[in-house]
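Would you kindly consider the sequence and fold I have copied below?
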Amino acid sequence: MNPIEISFEFFPPKTPEGVEKLRAARTQLTRLKPKFVSVTFGAGGSTQEGTLDTVLEIAKDGLEAAPHLSCVGSSRDALRAILDRYRANGIRHIVALRGDMPSGMVEMGELRYASELVAFIRAEYGDWFWIEVAGYPEYHPQSRSPRQDLENFARKVKAGANSAITQYFYNGDAYLRFVDEVRKLGVDVPIVPGIMPITNYAQLMRFSEMCGAEVPRWIARQLESFGDDREAIRAFGLDIVTQLCERLVKEGVPGLHFYTLNAATASKAICERLGYGIDQ
């Protein structure tokens, strides 16, 4: 019996080598019996077909797959066409996002916010889809204020979302405070923390700068001190992220969602430390 439900995020591979890498990672992680896996969606639909192909391959293996769906730069008709294909293939789980504006694009599209996308999906498809939305414990980098960000999150949920997955973080207090604050706004859906394993210092800092996730200074300094010692970075990262997950589990979180970057080793090691065995 696993301690709590887990899930994993993948991205659509763009090369034959990437396809094989993802299949290998998925084989290892599926043994941990995740509740579902999500598949990201490229900016402006750049990987729309890749997302569909990846989701359908995963679903054929009997694993619940949840494609990301971005509304930025899209029309209602285009979104409807994508959702119709998912429904026709029996996909019932969607991660609904605003998404980032692709470089060079000037039109936001017919739906400007994730709350509008959630409302659109509900109006068009009723209860067919289980809808996830994104939460930002350290606040969305484009929000004008913490209060506005909390209200935007509540608006997405009240538009019809079933649950939420957060951006990754390394400060457990930020997540716990975020949950407390949105509960005061009437949000009662499960809010699953997003977990980013640490395996590469430069990559982590680059991702965190782009998405607004804070890497505490003491963690960043320690990682920086390891230089090119990948094994030291991996070992330190494994300890830090496992301790974060242990705290979250003790606090009663509804699950853990791992951002795998299409690699199994780090997420698998953390899960095994938490008590998830492949032979359960």
